[in-house]
Amino acid sequence: MPFTELQNELNERAAQGLLRQRRTLDSPQSPHITVDGSSYLSFCSNDYLGLANHPQLIAALQQGARQWGVGAGAAHLVSGHSAAHHRLEQALAAFVNKPAALLFSNGYMANLGAVQALIGKSDTVFADKLNHASLNDAMLLSRTEAKRYRHNDMAQLAQLLEQTKTGRKLIITDAVFSMDGDLAPLPELLALCERHDAWLLVDDAHGFGVLGEQGRGSLAHFGVASPRIIYMATLGKAAGVFGAFVAAEQIVIDTLVNHARSYVYTTATPPALAGTVLESLQLIGEGDALREHLRELVAQLRSGLAGLPWKLMASDTAIQPLLIGGNQAALALSEGLRERGIWVAAIRPPTVPQGTARLRITLSAAHSTADVARLIEVLHELAH
User: Fold this and answer.
1) Which pTM was predicted?
2) Superfamily assignment of 21-49+287-383 in CATH?
3) Which pLDDT score is estimated for 208?
């Protein structure tokens, strides 16, 4: 039976410390959650500004449901594109300083759709080796020639671009790398695009709402702007809701409307969510105090974890990876934290390279300094 083969594969994953299992939350997203009936202090959510359970967003969603109902009913190009969607697209474009924007169901589908629509078999895509899985899959599904460069290695990328003489060129990169927490050198990437007549697709899933003036994202953080930049961000992390968008020149957005299969052939997200994200944008824009508190928590954590036997990777963002190395060791440390009431996920291959299993500690503006102090205390206890 084929099931025997599947079970053998799962058993092998378990033996390697790679088996994935779900846990069930019995509470809303918050630094303090209930999982499988037990209470935990959580450091593994991407709710960076603590908006996922914000009362203003709850009220906006309730109002949106009263006005628009629950479901969109159809794809955007059929009858699912509401005035709420349209207003949100205009607001998102203005927020990130781009001419136009297009909503997608999630970041994975946004990346798949954008890459697939913009390049083809005669073109070339250039990708950072630590890009998110959605960018990697988008690269494969585009059926184009793919060239991967070492993480943030601009010299190697320049060589690859120089060697490519024909077709469209598209560089794709995370802005904040989701498992390392470091930043892509966007000014240098844009300079290479200008030199080699290429596009730059920036996945800012973990920068939108957190970085830059008023939380406008990584482009604002670096002060870069160009028609060559195609910008993608998600709405389920710092924004606290759900969905994603691509912002770019109007001709790029028109191309996606016509050719991005993950947009054309998918039911639109509920319009009530669009109205909720509009409210979230206002909170993000007014959230300088939240971002400052988050920066203070990052500094507190990095200072407090100095001297541990595990390496805290270089990151100034809310993503603070603690490098453990072996899969079983990372699982054991995660379990040790859990036994003491702290929830931090162990991240293992293939999400990260072999030998670099880690605890991916994520901070939120909803955490208190006491919360971070507790995590520091327990990690030192487990280390000794």
Assistant:
1) 0.94
2) Aspartate Aminotransferase, domain 1 (3.90.1150.10)
3) 98
Which residues are catalytically annotated? 178, 206, 237
Pairing, β 319-325 against β 32-35: unpaired
Structure tokens at 266: 């998918």
- Separation of alpha carbons 374 and 362, rounded Å: 14
Question: Tens of pLDDT along 248-259?
Answer: 999 999 999 999
* pLDDT tens-digit readout, 95-137: 999 999 999 999 999 999 999 999 999 999 999 999 999 999 9
Give me the DSSP letters along 252-305.
HHHHHHHH-HHHHTSBPPPHHHHHHHHHHHHHHHT-HHHHHHHHHHHHHHHHHT
pLDDT surpasses 70 at 1: no
Check for a shared fold between 21-49+287-383 and 57-285.
no
Judge whether 337 and 43 are in contact, CB under 8 Å. Answer: no
The fold of 57-285 is Aspartate Aminotransferase; domain 2 (3.40.640)
Q: What phi and psi, each to the nearest 5 degrees, are found at residue 181? A: 80, 0
Residue 292 has pLDDT above 70, yes or no: yes
| Cα–Cα dist 178/33, whole Å | 22
